[in-house]
Amino acid sequence: MKKLTGSIVALVTPFHEDGSVDFARLRELCDWHIANGTDAILALGTTGETASTSLEEDIKTLECVIDHVNGRVPVIAGAGSNSSEMQKHKSVIYSQMGASALLCISPYYVKTNEEGMYRHFMMSADAATAPIILYNVPGRTGCKISPDVVRRLSVHPNVMAIKEASGDIGYAMKVARYLSDDFTMYSGNDDITIPLMSLGASGVISVWANVMPRTVHDMVTDYLAGRHEKALQTQLRYLDLINALFMEVNPIPVKTAMNLMGLQAGHFRMPMYPMAPENLGRLKRIMREAGLPVQEAAE
């Protein structure tokens, strides 16, 4: 796992109209991603709306993904919680279930000091058998994992990477000093994947890959193969689409785009709510400009 490179999709969770998980569609989406070159699947991430699902539902969802993928690609499980004990608990359970790695987040709402932040992650890293990926996303959590805490965690034998989603290139530069054969970085922002790869990132944990998995895979592969200009041109060509997928809070736009494409991403869990009409119209226009199908029936 510590050598994992490429496009890791931050998979949506398809829900039925009554709010239950659509497991049949979930399995179909896994097959579609594998057929289109996705290098690994992240289940139970932010894009999977796990802030509004129960632990029981999360376990069933992860079980569905792991069993259906059946080793064809690695499956990473979002184990994050603002409770250090709950994050550790999830990390142990998901490791036992066969997750290839765990995405662990900094505590949201509950703020802490430097030592508390360090120990928050250490609890999971020490307890789990699957390696963990640190998740730095201050726009969601209200706090950053300081570069010094990253430095301390980067040498733990069960910490494999950081998902860097602050959008702060200066921060990424500081973290890049600690990358090694045993500790890597993944872009957590689709709009700056290539800039972060120029700093040593091994790929992206991608929302965009939910609608264009082959393109994201090829872009990352091109960069890793030394075709830097080609990879950059792909990033720039689809920048408007990438930005449109975040014009409202994730995963509202990407699930909407998937439904417009006929990919049947299903409904939202409250407080996620359908897009504002003016944003929906803009999303459709940008999707068409990017060459994506917009099914008339879905409009």
Automatic annotation (TrEMBL):
SUPFAM superfamilies: Aldolase
Pfam families: DHDPS (PF00701)
Keyword tRNA processing: no
Site feature Part of a proton relay during catalysis, where: 46, 109
Keyword Protein biosynthesis: no
Location of the active site: 135, 163
Catalysed reactions listed for this entry: L-aspartate 4-semialdehyde + pyruvate = (2S,4S)-4-hydroxy-2,3,4,5-tetrahydrodipicolinate + H2O + H(+)
Subcellular location: Cytoplasm
EC number assigned by the record: 4.3.3.7
SMART domains tied to this protein: DHDPS
Family the entry assigns: Belongs to the DapA family.
Subunit structure: Homotetramer; dimer of dimers.
Function: Catalyzes the condensation of (S)-aspartate-beta-semialdehyde [(S)-ASA] and pyruvate to 4-hydroxy-tetrahydrodipicolinate (HTPA).
Full protein name: 4-hydroxy-tetrahydrodipicolinate synthase
Source species taxonomy: Bacteria, Bacillati, Bacillota, Clostridia, Eubacteriales
Gene: dapA
